[in-house]
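Q: Convert this sequence to structure tokens.
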Amino acid sequence: MRFVLTALLFVGGLIYAVMGLNFLYQPGSAATGFGLVADGVPGLSTLRADMTAFFLLSGVCMFWGAWRRQGDLLLVPAALFGIAFLGRLINVIAEGATPGFWQPMLIEAVTVALCVAGNRMLLHHRIEEIAD
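A:
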């Protein structure tokens, strides 16, 4: 079980890191998959800065935490994706549901669950190593 969870965290982290780098190098094309449109140079700058930071930080923390078996690092992407999930939930309540609204929420919820489970599992594993 630990191996599968670690592998999922590692692969997920790599995917998010690549998404972050994609926003850095090709913000306009990366944004279209998220329903975003850059409005000129300031919009491209915002996409490069904010989306790169969100996905690259999440990805690096996920795969580094999985690789080094440091569960505390997994709390960073759990918090980021948890806040994103909450924002989408508030939007559904305030503005109503749109077709396919649940797909990004599902991805965010699964990411939060994986990161929290990884944190708990790796923390427990680390305590056992120290005790031995």
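The chain is about 85% helix and 0% strand.
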